[in-house]
Amino acid sequence: MIISVASGKGGTGKTLVSTSLAISISAKEKVQLLDCDVEEPNDHLFLRPVITTSETVSIPVPKVDYTKCNFCGECARVCAYKAIAVVPGSVLIFDQLCHGCGACSYLCPESAICEEGREMGVVESGKAGDIEFVQGRLTVGEAMAVPVIRRVKTKIKRDSLAILDVSPGTSCPVVETIRDSDYCLLVTEPTPFGLHDLELAVETVRHMDIPCGVIVNRAVSDETMVHEYCIREGIPVLLDIPLDRDIAHLYSEGVTLAEGIPQWQDAFTNVYTEIKEALHERSRCA
Questions:
Q1: What are phi and psi for residue 269, nearest 5 degrees?
Q2: Domain with CATH 3.40.50.300 in the chain
Q3: According to CATH, what is the number of the domain 66-111?
Q4: Which of 71, 150, 241, 261 is most enclosed, with most CB atoms within 10 A?
């Protein structure tokens, strides 16, 4: 099973939920935690894994053989990302714009373009207790997170529960991470901004036909806007995590909720049970 933990905005508590869910379930079954927030991965700050392997992620970018090139401009014409410009006597390659699609090398009439790898990040793997841990890290200054996310997702093991910590928002990295998930947990907060961005996230996962549920972090008893929205939309609220000084203190110290207050492990286990029941009912009705 693959569960993505996402949010419409940053700072809602995805890391708190991802790490606590992984710890709570790992005592009962095999769990992987894959940090796909590759621009700012921070699950490792809470799980403190022992990293055992690291591999480079590269993207193929064009390289011109000037002994063959006749500067016809076909490579620039077919490049959808405007990563190539041909001027008299030279071909300009803008590596940061290249998406590695290979169209230029494939369609060059003189076979004057080959491809070479340009490093854009790393994927690291290891263990945190019983949890198998994987994280991607995008090189500072790189614009495209998707190739690193794809490499992280190749580490998913289908005989384990895979929990994917998703980057905030609803952009391309989020869509790429959530793709192929069995269920998406949407973490939000009871504020107008939190609700607005939750609505965008719900629209995204529904467009992808992925079932979802909501966890409300920093919940307060007199603020019900998120619950009212979820009732209207038929979305289950699986857990309320209260606005609590002790929880905030644990988080500031890099301690997961499930470890710092072990009673919460039952709550996260119940969330997992509800997800499994929802997926079973969905498959039965399909």
A1: -65, -40
A2: 2-55+121-285
A3: 3.30.70.20
A4: 241
CATH number of 2-55+121-285: 3.40.50.300
> Which residue is associated with the tokens 């995805």?
14
Name the token pair of 248: 């905030």
Q: What is the pLDDT of residue 284?
A: 82
89 touches 140 (CB < 8 A): no
Three-state secondary structure readout of the chain: CEEEEECCCCCCCHHHHHHHHHHHHHCCCCEEEEECCCCCCCCHHHHCCEEEEEEEEEEEEEEECCCCCCCCCHHHHHCCCCCEEEECCEEEECHHHCCCCCHHHHHCCCCCEEEEEEEEEEEEEEEECCEEEEEEEECCCCCCCHHHHHHHHCCCCCCCEEEEECCCCCCHHHHHHHCCCCEEEEEECCCHHHHHHHHHHHHHHHHCCCCEEEEEEEECCCCCHHHHHHHHHCCCEEEEEECCHHHHHHHHCCCCHHHHCCCHHHHHHHHHHHHHHHHHHHHHHC
How far is 61 from 75, CA to CA, in rounded Å?
A: 12
- Quote the pLDDT of residue 158: 86
Low-confidence ranges of the chain (pLDDT < 70): 286
Q: In what order do the strands lie in the sheet with 183-188?
A: 50-64, 113-128, 131-138, 31-35, 161-165, 2-6, 183-188, 212-219, 237-242
pLDDT of residue 223: 85
Q: How far is CA 197 from the centre of its chain?
A: 17
